[in-house]
């Protein structure tokens, strides 16, 4: 069974168009990639700030003498 040259050309053109569209979509997705996250949060600094704020609150309530 042989395939007519016109049909073969149409199939080849469709495959080439599909591959070009996939490549364009892949490139567009790479451009929209999420930015890199910032530096991690320093939990020790947050804990120290929280403790200082709680100490001030207790001083204001005069719970700590």
Put the structure in a nutshell.
The protein is mainly α and about 60 residues long.
Characterize the structure shown:
- The protein has 65 residues and is mostly helical.
- It has one domain.
- It contains 2 helices and no strands.
- The model has no long low-confidence stretch (mean pLDDT 86).
Short key terms for the protein model shown above:
mainly alpha; 65 residues
How are the secondary structure elements laid out?
Layout: H1 5-31, H2 43-61
In total, the number of domains comes to 1
| Number of discrete helical segments | 2
| Secondary-structure element string | HH
Radius of gyration: 32 Å
Approximate helicity band: over 70%
Distance N terminus to C terminus? 99 Å
Task: Report the principal-axis shape.
Answer: rod-shaped
Number of strands: 0
As residue ranges, the low-confidence spans are none
Strand content: under 5%
Arithmetic mean pLDDT: 86
Largest sheet: none
Pairing-aware structural class of the strands and helices? Answer: mainly alpha
């Amino acid at each position: 069974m042989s395939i007519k040259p016109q049909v073969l050309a149409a199939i080849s053109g469709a495959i080439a168009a599909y591959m070009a569209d996939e490549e364009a979509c892949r490139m567009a997705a790479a451009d929209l990639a999420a930015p890199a996250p910032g530096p991690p949060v320093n939990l020790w600094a947050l804990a120290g700030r929280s403790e200082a704020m709680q100490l001030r609150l207790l001083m204001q309530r005069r719970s700590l003498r």
